[in-house]
Amino acid sequence: MGFDDLRQQSIAVQEQHYVAESQSLMDRMPLFKDLKPRERFVVALFIFMDVTVLGFGCLLVADRMMP
Asked: DSSP assignment of 4-66, as one string?
């Protein structure tokens, strides 16, 4: 394997990385593509609430917060 092969592989990887960055979030996450904005907000709100409740639970278990 010569330097030219390595250079071509490097260029190909950089081009693939550039194409992946240029895709929008909706193209990369087809699950949320069919949802309306209001439905996406509700899903985001539920995820936020879930993370919040789990965070408080972890703090309680670690005795970092008093109930």
From this structure: HHHHHHHHHHHHHHHHHHHS-HHHH-GGGTTS-HHHHHHHHHHHHHHHHHHHHHHHHHTTSS-
Q: What is the pLDDT of residues 32-57, one digit of tens each?
A: 888 899 999 999 999 999 999 999 99
Tokens of 23: 């895709």
Q: Let me know: does 61 contact 67? Beta carbons within 8 Å.
A: no
pLDDT for 52-62, tens place per residue? 999 999 998 99
Rounded-to-integer distance, Cα 55 and Cα 32, Å: 25
